[in-house]
């Protein structure tokens, strides 16, 4: 079996949520024996070393330029997709059993005359219309807010166009899958959980009082989450002996001066660290205080795999299938959030049990390889039945 994977960003290194999901799936497809060709239309060229790593799993890589200009804002297609219009002209010189689109951003590939639409599968990382509306709520910049709202409206329109060309959908969020299935029961849609990225799950020693948040520091919804925690929860936590709040993530060289208005006592910030391993290892628990967002917050799943129990807002764990008080602690008010953190600090046995329960759930329900394999087999059965009829 041969598959063409089309990405809006080079999938390696897997240093943020979208890449974690895409890179894990590429490795799973390779393990299943698929021949993989990759087309990427991203903003930054990958390094030679990163390309060499990817070549361990794929046979061919084609890169095309992402080009954006201000006039793209006037186009009916979202700027995130319009800036990747070069995909319409990529030379697809081979036949593929399937073409896997990694998100709505690569929509222009569907206008490539060499693509057979009957073979196209869309991986839905987010409901982009909802996601961009959430970004608009998170940002305080009026220009950015207007841009996000425009993209939200355009993605809502684009999703209707996609439905005319694609009938195979793989959702990362169980919540978004169920909503889509209710509205479009005839589509061949499925909840495909994100791939488990660690062969062996880790476990905190629960020796420190370090509260960890890891996420892209350039994203307004992550900034909003950190700001909410620093404003409402962190001051309460400062009375806890040996407490520290550890923040880590890629800033894309953007200024972090938005942190200056908060009390940064006992706050440690790791800007674009080369590795997250020691940060996870030093943590007691992970917090995901997201106030706005869509899809699955992979930071929650990654934290659990890396050995940290999670306290989250309702937004931060939606679509994961995790259950409050069984796999994860959920708190939406500052007082409840503080209570949950202190509860975990005061009871390491509870923290350990919560971690073990959440890891067991992920091992049991997040079998990316088997779900993907069964889905492809079901599509092949459908095709074979049509040929017989």
Automatic annotation (TrEMBL):
The keyword Oxidoreductase does not apply. Coiled coil: none annotated. It holds the Pfam family Glyco_trans_1_4. GO terms for molecular function: transferase activity. This is Glycosyltransferase. The keyword Transferase applies. Gene3D superfamilies: Glycogen Phosphorylase B. Keywords: Transferase. CDD domains: GT4_PimA-like.
